[in-house]
Design brief:
By secondary structure, the protein is of the alpha/beta class. The chain has 2 domains: 1-52; 110-143 and 153-416, Alpha-Beta Complex (Spore Coat Polysaccharide Biosynthesis Protein SpsA, Chain A). Helix content is 28%, strand content 18%. It is built from 8 helices and 16 strands. It has helices at residues 2-52, 126-130, 176-182, 213-229, 249-263, 319-324, 338-348, 377-382; strands at residues 59-62, 73-76, 97-100, 123-125, 146-149, 202-209, 233-241, 268-272, 276-278, 292-293, 297-298, 314-318, 354-355, 362-365, 397-405, 410-416. The longest helix has 51 residues, at 2-52. Catalyzes the transfer of galactose onto proteins or lipids. It holds the Pfam family Glyco_transf_7C. Belongs to the glycosyltransferase 7 family.
């Protein structure tokens, strides 16, 4: 009897042990699978967030039809200072001829009149213009071009050598006459090219504007030296809305894009609010690989990004990117909505929003009175996807009232076509 009991007890122990082993094995498998899922989720999240931050330093070699003697042109895209690379030691020289508009090369006698359009009150129809904009064309009826030989200068280094990093923002508002004396090296239209090397990017700064003279003066005071240290070939365009109706920031930026390309073959565009001043010159205003949100950290927002999809304040896009998304919507009259609509356009067309780190992409905002909000902005945002192809550059209508080629900037006064 005792033997039977012991045998039964051993059998029970064996079965229990086997069950525990099987249970332990299953638990191990479950834990392993859960751990793998957690790691996978972390990796996916990390990759997604990394796509939001533009690489600190990349060099992109792209073919350029407008430079027939260059097989490849390298463009700087970032900030960090790389180790020595023999391919960027100044050995790259160019000796080419390039078609330039007189904005770049105008004698002192002719700088105010030689290339002004013959029709001051022409109606701008962007849809007809877009088909004529190419990488190597300039509208000859608007600005007769000049062929200027290059002297074989070295290509500017990917990282400009004279950057200071954090800089002191100056909030003074000097007169335009005082500013002109401070920047004697500027060409007509606020155009600048470094003399020591061949710039890598041709950049148009587009500033939507109305009745903010002091802010404009402060922006020019800070922005010109900032851009010159970055060794850019740049011009500043102040697009001013005529009249006292609701302000249309997005439409003015579309106008700036169209009008700037009539004067010069720009590679990319920085859309810049007049009240934002950059605090770090490592925040390069160069051509972005992906549409770039520049004003990541603003002082009045405690230097924090309000939400991931924001694209307002200061943003950068190449000519190709801006044309592909059909520019900004023309529907947003009054404050708000147009930058979020552009954010939606960017992602809808397969791009992603890139950003520099928040400790570099810092701005101070000048105090100003807030505009009246657009009551229909949420409605237009919700239905915007239906209009991406029909609302934007393709539907832009405006009348150009004035084109003033000043010493500090090009002023474009326009009357916008109001919605029917």
């Amino acid at each position: 009897m005792r033997c039977r009991c012991l045998s039964a007890w051993r059998t029970i122990q064996h079965v229990a042990r086997q069950s525990c082993l099987r249970l332990h094995s299953h638990l191990c498998k479950v834990v392993t699978v859960l751990a793998a899922l957690i790691v996978l989720q972390y990796l996916i999240t990390t990759i997604f967030q990394a796509r939001q931050i533009e690489p600190l330093f990349t060099v992109n070699f792209t073919h350029s039809r407008s430079h027939s003697h260059w097989d490849r042109i390298s463009h700087s895209r970032g900030l960090s200072f790389p180790a020595h690379n023999s391919s960027f030691n100044g050995s790259m020289h160019v000796s080419v001829e390039k078609t330039l508009s007189p904005v770049e090369n105008v004698s002192g006698e002719a700088k105010n009149s030689s290339f002004l359009p013959t029709h001051e009150n022409a109606v701008g129809n962007a849809s007809s213009l877009l088909s004529n904009i190419s990488l190597s064309s300039v509208n000859l009826t608007t600005s007769p071009s000049l062929t200027v030989p290059f002297t074989g200068k070295s290509l500017c280094p990917p990282i400009p050598p004279n950057l200071n990093g954090p800089i002191k923002v100056v909030k003074d508002s000097p007169s335009l006459e005082e500013l002109e004396k401070r920047f004697p090296m500027l060409e007509p239209g606020g155009h600048y090219r470094p003399q020591e090397c061949q710039p890598r990017d041709r950049v148009a700064i587009i500033v939507p504007y109305r009745d903010r003279r002091e802010h404009l003066s402060t922006l020019l005071l800070n922005l010109h030296p900032f851009l010159q240290r970055q060794q850019l070939d740049y011009g500043i365009f102040v697009v001013e809305q005529a009249g006292d109706g609701p302000f249309n920031r997005a439409m003015l930026m579309n106008v700036g894009f169209v009008e700037a390309l009539k004067l010069y073959n720009y590679d990319c565009f920085i859309f810049h609010d007049v009240d934002l001043l950059p605090e770090d010159d490592r925040n390069l205003y160069s051509c972005p690989e992906q549409p770039r949100h520049m004003s990541v950290a603003v002082d009045v927002l405690k230097y924090k990004l309000p939400y991931p999809g924001i694209f307002g304040g200061v943003s950068a896009m190449t000519k190709t990117q801006f044309k592909k998304v059909n520019g900004f919507s023309n529907m947003f009259w009054g404050w708000g909505g147009e930058d979020d609509d552009m954010s939606n356009r960017v992602r809808h067309h397969g791009y992603h929003i890139s950003r520099y780190p928040a400790n570099v992409a810092r701005y101070k905002m000048l105090t100003h009175r807030k505009q009246h909000a657009n009551p229909k902005r949420y409605e237009f945002l919700n239905t915007g996807r239906k209009r991406f192809k029909t609302d934007g550059l393709s539907s832009l209508q405006y009348e150009r009232k004035k084109l003033d080629i000043g010493k500090l900037y090009t002023r474009i006064l326009v009357e916008l076509a109001t919605p029917s």
